[in-house]
Design a protein that fits this description.
Blueprint: H1 3-10, E1 16-20, H2 24-33, E2 39-43, H3 69-78, H4 82-88, E3 92-95, E4 100-104, E5 107-108, E6 117-120, H5 123-135, E7 140-143, E8 146-153, E9 160-167, H6 168-171, E10 183-187, E11 190-193, H7 201-207, E12 215-218, E13 223-230, E14 241-244, E15 253-260, E16 264-271, H8 281-289, H9 295-300, E17 304-305, E18 310-312, E19 317-320, E20 332-334, E21 340-341, H10 349-366, H11 378-389, H12 391-401, H13 407-413, H14 418-434, H15 438-448, H16 460-473, H17 478-484, H18 486-491
Parallel strand pairs: 1-2, 1-11, 2-7, 4-14, 11-20
Antiparallel strand pairs: 3-6, 4-5, 8-9, 9-10, 12-19, 13-16, 13-17, 13-18, 14-15, 15-16, 19-21
Helix pairs in contact: 2-5, 2-10, 3-10, 10-11, 14-15, 14-16, 16-17
Bound molecules: flavin-adenine dinucleotide (FAD).
The site of flavin-adenine dinucleotide has 37 residues, from helix 2, strand 8 and helix 10.
Length: about 500
Amino acid sequence: MSKFQQRQQEISNGSHALVIGSGIAGLLAARILLNHFQHVTIVERDSLPEQPQLRPGVPQAVQSHGILVQGQRILEQLFPGLDDELIAAGAISVNWGADVLYLSSLGIAPSCPSDLITLECSRNLLEWAIRCRLKTAIRLQFLEATQVKKLLTDESQSRVIGVQVRDVLAGSHLKDEWDNSQFGELTADLIVDASGRNSSLPKWLEELGYPTPRETVIDAFLGYTTRWYNCPAHLQTDWKILCVLPNPPHQSRCGVLEPIEGNRWSLSLYGFGRDYPPNDEVGFLEFARTLHSPIIYEVVKDAKPISPVYSYRRTENRLRHYEQLSKFPEGIVALGDAVFAFNPYYGQGMTAAALSALVLDRCLNQRCRQSQNALIGFGQHFQHQLARSLKTPWLSATRSDRVWLTSEDTMTMGKPNKINQLLQQYVEEVMLLSMDSPEVHRTMIEICHMVKPPIAFFQPNIAVKVLRQAWKRKTKLSLFAQYYEPSITKHE
Ligand SMILES: Cc1cc2nc3c(=O)[nH]c(=O)nc-3n(C[C@H](O)[C@H](O)[C@H](O)COP(=O)(O)OP(=O)(O)OC[C@H]3O[C@@H](n4cnc5c(N)ncnc54)[C@H](O)[C@@H]3O)c2cc1C
């Protein structure tokens, strides 16, 4: 009996959900599905390593992968005790108010008291730790080295009822020729596509005669390049992370040096607008020297590199608008990078995956699942809720990236209107203010880490200071000072 037939037999009693892909989004979705279905299967085309190691299906894992504070909190909510397990495995606790040195052309941001904590580690370790937790769930099974090839539907093609899968290892010696014994079928009540940026769902939908989602692509042409180092012994610093920020649109280069497990550093250098960091050793280090501050260069120039320089350029923001489809089959949903793929510079991807898992939970909770009929319309409902929930991180990444777009891209997108221009100026004033105000700096961190919504920039105590500053600096925003707080203009 093949592994597929065996699994099909195991799931024949009770409800079953199947997840395509065991990246962060797939793992977190599977954790939620355990609350709602008797059996859960994660189908992954890679063989999954027993230790925290790189695997071919997620080539981006060699790049720095910091999770945002909001994402860290959701992980601990979904897997109580995970924080302690990560620390035991070598992850480093970082307080973003106190342990991070931010340098920008405006100066050095002040430290501030905060409870904004993340655990810094490699993506390999984080994914492995979550996978280990899920492996203890007896109602869940990983089908490794198994690739989903297409969707199976009922006769009317209105409901997806399963997937056709292929045993990747069984076919490996045959090169391009496959025999039928490598293929199998698995049925499920709900299928979750979490197969990442290269998801085949649009193609599968087309094959079934469904419309495919419109895509919005906003590409700041960011080069993301990483190298790992051993931390020099006995190095004493009052920071754990160094962030040298860009200064759009003049200075497109920036970098982050962060600790990961095993007493190592992960150094990522970034260049917006096709200013790609080189991937040769000398060029990489030279690029670090040309950042707004050479501090990262000074710190790493004598440290021992322990990896090649890894380069990544598929960094565009890409949104597949499943929520706008007039027709979508029952029995399937999509989440993670398969729907919302962000410019990774902003570090939102894994946190967005965690938020998506919570949306899935909420939507499933709303539905009575006593019969299959209860899931009618579920896919469309979920995609709408997902789009609503991730609208803010999408807008914040794509608005920030606008500044790097070519005039051709800007023509496609349309120029930012007056309101957006003013908002942009307002945010620039907040950034300037944050250099002198620990309180404002903390609010900025909270917004960047999705702990607070961007509307927090406009809370009265910040707005008054911003407008006061704008008035002094005689920027366009100062016009608003008298409307917001007439006393500002009287006092000056
Ligand atoms: C350079 C770079 C740096 C990044 N840095 C950060 C960061 O600092 N912080 C952050 O939060 N996010 C970061 N991200 C984003 C982050 O990697 C993803 O957003 C996050 O991991 C969620 O991805 P996912 O699970 O949807 O997809 P993926 O991680 O791509 O996983 C998809 C999985 O599906 C499997 N698969 C694909 N097709 C099939 C199939 N047909 N059958 C079976 N299995 C299949 C793949 O093998 C893979 O395991 C970065 C991304 C890049 C590119």
